[in-house]
Write a structure and sequence with these properties.
283 residues; 15 strands
């Protein structure tokens, strides 16, 4: 046990003593029993002082300060209690696909030697009401961690192993789901790139067909303009090496003024000179 001088206690204006101190190779472990609320400045000073002499400090409230709600799943906490909550390895639980973390508080009943612990403390109605997982055990059944001095109720260590194993399985499932989603997106992106490439090829093919098609303006009406002389027409539209079938008169010729490279059809200069149209062929 560590012998604390009276001056240490007076310095922090506390009418109490350090209830238990254990010196271990991994550092000192201190336990302080709290019977009433502590002013914030005194509490902070006490916390700083205990850090100088111990690696792990544990706060235990007397059971009379414990104010659970009617359903025992919620508890009302004072400023002192809220300030001295601590997060332990037992303050984790899997809810759905997430790992929820909270904090702990311990209460001791001197008359019955029962240790009441509230795990997974999470604020539900600020500032005082917290949800919790209450556990109560006889002090003689409570285990104490050698390195940290943390309390462990019967069954908590086994439950912790289940939580850790369950969380590892969930993380593995999340990794697999993320990998599948990444692969799905990769395939979708490749499919989109292929679709855009096909569309570009189709556009290029269409443009090539349009480039291969020679379109000349239709001859003007005789009633509006003077018919050009044959020499002018022949000079303007020289025969091409490409041979097509005239859509108007049906002849096969290379002497055309419009040629469709995709079908091999054309409109010949003879029909242009005679001002014949497709309707004339129908007649």
């Amino acid at each position: 046990m560590l012998d604390l001088s009276e001056s240490f206690l007076i310095a922090y204006a506390l009418q109490s003593i350090l209830d238990c101190f254990v010196d271990t190779p991994s550092g000192g472990i201190a336990y302080w029993v709290i019977e009433r609320g502590i002013k914030r400045e005194d509490r902070l000073a006490l916390e700083e002082s205990l850090k100088e002499i111990s690696a792990h400090a544990h706060w235990i409230f007397v059971a009379t300060m414990r104010k659970p709600q009617d359903d025992l799943k919620e508890i009302s906490l004072t400023t002192t209690e809220r300030g001295l909550m601590s997060q332990t390895v037992f303050d984790s639980e899997i809810e759905g696909t997430e790992l929820v973390r909270g904090k702990s508080l311990h209460y001791i009943d001197p008359g019955t030697a029962i240790l009441h612990t509230h795990r997974l403390l999470i604020s539900v109605h600020e500032p005082q009401i917290f949800s919790s997982k209450p556990i109560s055990s006889s002090l003689s059944d409570v285990l104490i961690a050698r390195k940290t001095g943390e309390f462990a109720h019967p069954g908590e260590r086994e439950h912790l192993l289940k939580v850790k194993a369950g969380w590892e399985q969930l993380k593995a499932k999340k990794r697999m789901a993320a990998e599948k989603e990444a692969e799905r997106q990769k395939i979708a992106q490749q499919a989109e790139a292929e679709r855009l490439a096909r569309l570009a090829d189709q556009r290029a093919e269409l443009q090539a067909n349009l480039d291969a098609m020679v379109v000349m303006p239709r001859s003007v009406s005789k009633s509006s303009f003077r018919q050009p002389r044959s020499s002018q027409i022949l000079a303007a539209y020289q025969p091409s090496e490409k041979i097509g079938t005239c859509l108007i008169c049906g002849q096969v010729t290379s002497d055309w003024y419009m040629f469709d490279g995709s079908t091999g059809n054309c409109k010949c200069n003879d029909c242009l000179k005679s001002d014949r149209t497709a309707s004339d062929k129908a007649r």
